[in-house]
Every structure is written in structure tokens, then in C-alpha cells.
Hints:
Layout: E1 4-10, E2 16-17, E3 33-39, H1 46-51, E4 69-70, H2 75-80, E5 85-86, E6 90-95, H3 101-116, E7 119-123, H4 128-137, E8 145-148, H5 153-163, E9 167-171, H6 188-205, E10 209-213, H7 226-230, E11 233-238, E12 245-253, E13 261-267, E14 270-273, H8 277-281, E15 292-299, E16 302-314, E17 322-325, H9 329-343, E18 350-356, H10 368-380, E19 388-390, E20 393-394, E21 400-401, H11 406-416, E22 420-424, H12 425-430, E23 438-442, H13 445-452
Parallel strand pairs: 6-10, 6-11, 7-8, 7-9, 9-10, 15-19, 17-18, 19-22, 22-23
Antiparallel strand pairs: 1-2, 1-3, 4-5, 11-12, 12-13, 13-14, 15-16, 16-18, 20-21
Amino acid sequence: xxxxxxxxxxxxxxxxxxxxxxxxxxxxxxxxxxxxxxxxxxxxxxxxxxxxxxxxxxxxxxxxxxxxxxxxxxxxxxxxxxxxxxxxxxxxxxxxxxxxxxxxxxxxxxxxxxxxxxxxxxxxxxxxxxxxxxxxxxxxxxxxxxxxxxxxxxxxxxxxxxxxxxxxxxxxxxxxxxxxxxxxxxxxxxxxxxxxxxxxxxxxxxxxxxxxxxxxxxxxxxxxxxxxxxxxxxxxxxxxxxxxxxxxxxxxxxxxxxxxxxxxxxxxxxxxxxxxxxxxxxxxxxxxxxxxxxxxxxxxxxxxxxxxxxxxxxxxxxxxxxxxxxxxxxxxxxxxxxxxxxxxxxxxxxxxxxxxxxxxxxxxxxxxxxxxxxxxxxxxxxxxxxxxxxxxxxxxxxxxxxxxxxxxxxxxxxxxxxxxxxxxxxxxxxxxxxxxxxxxxxxxxxxxxxxxxx
Length: 454
């Protein structure tokens, strides 16, 4: 019999130690070590023996047939995948519990089954009867969707090798285990080894694999960081349960652009695609209220108009509060300091609250000018022009720097019906045509505030 070796492994990063440690020296987590066992001589994997080994070949002899994409029937999902599913790819989808990961995949494989053939859906958390109840709610009754309730990766690969489905879905990777590892399912070793075996199966059998991953308290995918390096594409399902919108964001994609987003609306019939999110996010915008500004953001290749609101009020405590939802808190603090130093606004004793409407999270610096104008509007209690749009990056000296894809942002604003745009002067000089808008180029923050507060 093979000898077993006991060791302790961090469940956050995978750091191994011969004895228990309170704090992980690698990632700094406390009480994250758990005892695991590993065989000194592991058994030969049945996957390699069944599928065979690959042979070296010259680059110019490799054809691009295996890189062909298949549509899921959901345009927003195809967008974040880079145009569709690539054969032999491995995609990891993470998100909070109940956010809609299983619902999205069930809707996607329904479209795949109708176009291309059988799809294998493996669930380690739900029984086939539970999946059937969800499918009935979504009006999915395809006979080409094969359900399998299994947690052994060897059994899953054996079944998939015989069935040869068009797509394999594993829900979730934390419930799957391999017999080569003696630790419990969901541990670092199990997640890493199972993902590696499923990746090997996907590449050798040329079958796309979708993995559903749990998330930790801070929102990152649970398990070792190597899990995200193994897969080809990493998608995060974002959203607030208090809002109907769900955002599918690409953070890694070997076959397309990153930071691409797909926007869905949760309904009784499942996830519905949002074709024009800009109009939807601005639908309930107050027109004559101070502290409201519309900014043009770029998410991947898509221009998106969103509303940023702020509330500035006199603080009743010694330490004024600063709260930012949907934008970087440190960025808001920096911009408040610019307003105090360069413009002369007195914000030291004010509570400042900034919020991006709709539950969106915007990380690009082009929304700096929107944060500046909305804080100034709330402080002065002066409503902005409802047909005004702003964007631009603000530096520490108060200068407004040019941003990328300014013409795309202007076109999106013209399509929605905006009439004025305050943008960086560097972008205003290069834009050919005004697309029906009055375009005002601003060199610094003072020029911007003079333009928006006539």
C-alpha cells in the first residue's frame, strides 16, 4: 500500500507546512490551516491513459479548426466570452450564492443543446429533481440536456468520455473530489487537482468545460489562486440582491478582451438580456435635483452611461464621514482634496456620500470629472443640466487629462439624447464632428465647473 503523508495547508492560498500555524506566512490569513493527507505515490490517472498523449508538432502545421466558437444563444454571454465558446476551453464562473450562476448556465446550455446537440450538466449540490424544478420555471424541456448527480471527477470524466457532449458543466468545483487525494472535497488540494484533471480532459477531448466556483467573504473565488491560472476564462457574476440587474464581468480571457461586461435583469422567467443598459440605468433619474451627474464609462468595448449621485451635508461629529459605493473610496478622497485645494470649496467639515446608481462598480479614471461635478452640485445645491454629460481624468494639480475612446462615448451620449458634453480639452481637439452635441473642452477643474454652473 502507498504511504500517506500528513501536512497542514492554508485553505486560502495553498501554503503547506509540516505543523499547524495560526497565521499563514504567505497570504496573512488567520486560522486558515487544515490537516490534509497525501499519498507518497499517487495512482496513475485514468484520464491520460484513456485519451492518450499529445505529440509535438510545428507551429505552421497547427490548424485553427479547434479554435472555432459556438454561440450560446445569449448575446450578453457571448460578448463576455469574446464571441462565443471556444472548443476545448475551460471557463470558471464565480459569484455570491443565489446570484444566478446556475440559472445562467442552464439557460445557456439550453441554447447550445438546441443548436449543437447533447450537453452534460453535472451537479454535486442538487439532485436531478431539483434541477428539473428550476428548468420548469425557466420553461426548459430539452431532451439533449443530460443531468448527472456525481462528485467523483474520475466518474465524471468516464461518463463524459463515453457521452462526448458538446459542453460539460460542473456545478460546482468545490464539491468535486478525486480519489488520488485523501483530503475532503473543497480543500485546496482537491480543488487544484480536480480542476487540473478537468482541464486536461477538455484539451484532449476538445470539449468546452464550465466550472462554477464559490466565493469567499471578500468576493474572490474560493480555493487556491492557481485555480484561476489553470482555466482559460474567469467570469464574475456581480450584483446586489436589492437590484434586479446582474453584471457578468470578464477578469481573464485567453480568447478575447478582459473587463468586458454583460448585463442581465433577473425576472421570474430567469435572466433577461439588457440590450440598451444606458437607457435603463437612466430611466428613473431625477431631472431637477442637485448632486446628480451622468458620466460616460467604457466597460470592455461597450460605452455605458451611468448616473453618479452625491450628498454633501454638514457633519455633526468631529470626524466627517466619507462613503463611496460603486467607485474607489481612495479616489473620492483624492478628488475631495483637489476641490478643496485647487477650487477653494470648503469640504473639511462636510459628510460626503457618493453612489453609482444601479449597483454598478466603475473602476476607470474617466469618471473623475463626474465625481467632481456631482460633489460641487450637491454642496452648492444647484441642479445640473439634465442633458449634460461629463467625463475625464483629474490629476492632483487639478488638470483634466484625456481618456481613451472619447468619440465612442460621445456617440453613445448623442444616441441617448444628450445635448452638451464637458470633456478634456485634449479629447475635444481630436474629435471629428460633434454628433449633434455642444462639446466643451476643459483644461482644469475650474474650467469644468464654470461650464456646468453658468
